[in-house]
Design a protein that fits this description.
By secondary structure, this protein is mainly beta. The chain contains 2 helices and 40 strands. The strands form 9 sheets. Strands 1, 2, 3, 7, 8, 9, 10, 11 and 13 form a 9-stranded antiparallel sheet that branches.
C-alpha cells in the first residue's frame, strides 16, 4: 500500500482538518496485546506527550511512558486498538520518544474493514494492511500519510521484532453520527457528529480541538487555553465547522477546571460558507450571542439569537481577553429550528401539540413562540437579577464573592450575594419583610409549559428562596417538596410592556434562590412536578396596589411555550 513520510514541520498542514481517532479522550482503548513486559500498551493512546522517566526503575527494569515488549522475539509483537469512533484513516504519528537502543526498528499497521465487528470478534477478523512495513529511528516522531481508507473501527500496530514505542496516534475523519429526524435537537459541533475545529487564533496551553470532545475532561490540560495577553482590547477565537448545516438554538460553554484563568466574557457568530476555514473578519459573520460574562469552573447555558430560517455551517467563538474553555456544545437541528414562531388555530391548545405547524393559515390564527428552558447560572441570569446559592468549590463562586468561615468553623458564609433595594415614595408607607409562598406544580404538556401571565414590581427587587421539607410528625411543612422551578424573565420595552425579544427561561434547583431586579418582568413563581415552599424577601405596601405588583396577561393572539430540557 502506498504511503508518504511527512516531515515534522508539515504536521499541522497535513493533519489540521483530521481527528485523532485513537485518542483515549475519544474513547480509544487497547483491546489486546501480544506482550507488554516492560511497559504497558495503554500509554500509547495517552493525550500527553511522553515524559522522560530516565533513571527510574520498576520490578521488571527501566520505566518508560509507552509500550515495550521483551527482547528476542522470533516473529513480531502486536497491539490491537479500538478507535474512539468509527472513521476513515489518513495517517499516523508513531513516536519513539525516549526509546533509544530499545526502540521498535520497524512497524506496520493493519485495519479491519468491517464496521459491524466488536472487540470480541477481532481474533477471527480479516485484517487488511493499511501501512506497509516502515523503519523507525530512536527517540523521534515519525509521520506517515496514506490514501484514505474505508471506515474502520479497529487497527493493529505490529512492531518487528520487538522493542518500545511511546505514542501511537491514528488520524482520520469521523463517520458522523447524527439523528435521522431533521427536527431532533443534537450537538452539531460534537466530534462524533462530524464537527471540527478548523482555526484557532492561539492554542498555547491547550489545543482548540479539545472543545468538541466528549465528556468534561479531567483537568485544564484537555481544554482550549490561550496564552496571557498583555495588550488592551485583546481577543482570541476559534472557528468550528459544524457536522452538518444546522438551525441553531442554544449553546453550552463549559469552563470546567478553569478557575483562575477563565475568559472574562465571550460572544458567538455564525455563517453559512462552503469554505473549510472562512475568513475570521468576513462581513458575513452574524452575531448569534452578544457578549456575555463567564464564570469559573461551570457549565454556562445561553439561548442563541440565530436566524431560524438559516442553516449555518460554521460558528466562531470569541473570548475576551484570553483564557481557557473546556467544551462548547452547539445545540440545533438539521431542519427548521423548533424554536421558530409557528402558526396554530385558536382552538388548538398545548394539550393538542400547539407547536405543530399548519399548511394553511385562517384569519383567526395564533402565533406560537417556543422558548428553550436552560439551567440557571449566575452569568446568564445577571442581566435580570442574581442567583443565590452556595458553592462547594469556593473557586467556582462568581468573582468578587466574599467567602469566610462562620459558626466556629462549622459553616461557610457567602456574603451579600444580593442587596435589598427599594425606591417607593415615602408617603406610600412600604416596608420590608418576609413572606412564604406555597406553590403547587404547574401543568406540563408534551414537555412544555405555556406562559400566560407576567408581572413586575416597579419599586423593589424581590427574592425567592426555596424551603426544605418537614420531618417532624404533625408539622405543616411539605413532606416531599419539589426540587425544580421555572424562572422566566424579560426586560421592559419601549412601549412600557415586556420586550419579548429579550425573553429568557431558566430552570432552577431547590439549591438555588433568585433575586429579580427592580421592574424586571417575570413569570409568577412556577414550580415543576411537586409543590414547593418559598420564602419571599420583598418591600411592599401590602394593599394590592399596582405600585406593589403590576400584572399583565399575554394577548390571546400569542402563545409562548416554555420548552423544558429533555434531561
Amino acid at each position: 500500500m502506498a504511503y508518504e513520510s511527512i516531515p515534522l514541520e508539515a504536521f499541522h498542514e497535513t493533519f489540521k482538518s483530521n481527528t485523532e481517532l485513537s485518542s483515549v479522550a475519544l474513547g480509544g482503548k487497547i483491546v489486546k496485546v501480544s506482550d507488554e513486559f516492560f511497559a504497558e500498551a495503554f500509554h500509547l493512546l495517552e493525550v500527553e506527550p511522553a515524559p522522560s522517566l530516565k533513571g527510574q526503575f520498576g520490578p521488571n527494569g527501566a520505566l518508560y511512558s509507552g509500550w515495550e515488549s521483551r527482547r528476542h522475539n522470533p516473529s513480531y509483537d502486536w497491539c490491537i486498538i479500538k478507535l474512539g469512533t468509527l472513521g476513515t484513516v489518513v495517517g499516523f504519528d508513531i513516536d519513539t520518544s525516549h526509546f533509544s537502543g530499545n526502540e521498535a526498528p520497524e512497524v506496520s499497521v493493519d485495519g479491519i474493514i468491517d464496521s459491524s465487528l466488536d472487540e470480541h470478534n477481532v481474533d477471527n477478523a480479516k485484517w487488511t494492511e493499511i501501512l506497509p512495513r516502515v523503519s523507525l529511528g530512536p527517540s523521534k516522531r515519525h509521520l506517515f500519510k496514506i490514501p484514505e481508507t474505508e471506515q474502520v473501527k479497529f487497527v493493529k500496530l505490529n512492531m518487528y521484532p520487538d522493542g518500545g514505542i511511546a505514542r501511537f496516534r491514528v488520524y482520520g475523519n469521523v463517520a458522523p453520527v447524527q439523528p435521522d429526524s431533521p427536527q431532533e435537537v443534537f450537538d452539531l459541533a460534537h466530534v462524533f457528529a462530524g464537527g471540527r475545529v478548523t482555526f484557532m487564533s492561539d492554542q498555547h496551553f491547550g489545543v482548540g480541538a479539545n472543545l468538541i470532545l466528549p465528556g468534561r475532561g479531567k483537568d485544564m490540560g484537555d481544554g482550549w487555553e490561550t496564552k496571557r495577553s498583555r495588550q488592551k482590547g485583546h481577543k482570541d477565537w476559534v472557528i468550528i465547522k459544524l457536522g452538518a448545516p444546522g438551525h441553531l438554538g442554544t449553546v453550552e460553554i463549559d469552563t470546567a477546571h478553569f478557575k483562575g484563568n477563565f475568559p472574562e466574557s465571550c460572544e458567538l457568530h455564525a455563517l453559512c460558507s462552503e469554505d473549510e476555514i472562512p475568513d475570521s473578519d468576513a462581513v458575513d459573520w452574524t452575531q448569534i450571542l452578544s457578549p456575555v460574562k463567564l464564570g469559573p469552573h461551570r457549565r454556562h447555558f445561553f439561548a442563541l439569537d440565530a436566524d431560524v430560517s438559516v442553516a449555518y455551517t460554521h460558528v466562531k467563538l470569541t473570548i475576551y481577553p484570553d483564557g481557557g474553555i473546556k467544551r462548547v456544545r452547539i445545540h440545533g437541528t438539521k431542519g427548521p429550528c423548533p424554536t421558530a414562531d409557528l402558526a396554530v388555530r385558536p382552538t388548538d391548545t398545548a394539550e393538542n401539540d400547539a407547536a405543530t405547524p399548519l399548511e394553511s393559515a385562517p384569519v383567526a390564527m395564533k402565533q406560537v413562540k417556543t422558548i428553550p428552558v436552560l439551567p440557571l447560572t449566575p452569568e446568564a441570569f445577571s442581566p435580570f437579577g442574581q442567583v443565590i446559592q452556595a458553592y462547594g468549590d469556593h473557586a467556582a463562586a462568581p468573582p468578587g464573592t466574599k467567602i469566610t468561615p462562620a459558626n466556629q468553623g462549622s459553616a461557610t458564609k457567602f456574603h451579600k450575594l444580593s442587596l435589598l433595594k427599594s425606591s417607593y415614595p415615602a408617603d406610600l408607607g412600604a416596608s420590608s419583610g418576609l413572606s412564604v409562598y406555597r406553590c403547587n406544580p404547574t401543568k406540563v404538556v408534551n414537555g412544555g409549559v405555556e406562559l400566560k401571565v407576567v408581572e413586575r414590581h416597579p419599586y423593589t427587587n424581590q427574592a425567592f428562596i426555596p424551603m426544605g421539607g418537614g420531618g417532624i410528625q404533625g408539622d405543616e411543612a411539605l413532606k416531599e417538596p419539589g426540587n425544580a422551578y421555572l424562572v422566566v424573565v424579560a426586560h421592559n420595552g419601549a412601549d412600557d410592556k415586556p420586550d419579548f425579544s429579550t425573553l429568557r427561561a431558566f430552570v432552577a434547583s431547590a439549591g438555588q434562590g433568585i433575586m429579580y431586579n427592580t421592574a424586571i418582568w417575570h413569570q409568577p413563581m412556577t414550580v415543576l412536578y411537586k409543590p414547593m415552599d418559598f420564602t419571599c424577601v420583598e418591600t411592599q405596601i401590602g394593599n394590592g396596589d399596582k405600585a406593589d405588583c403590576e400584572i399583565l396577561d399575554l394577548e390571546a393572539s400569542e402563545v409562548v411555550i416554555l420548552a423544558l430540557p429533555r434531561h
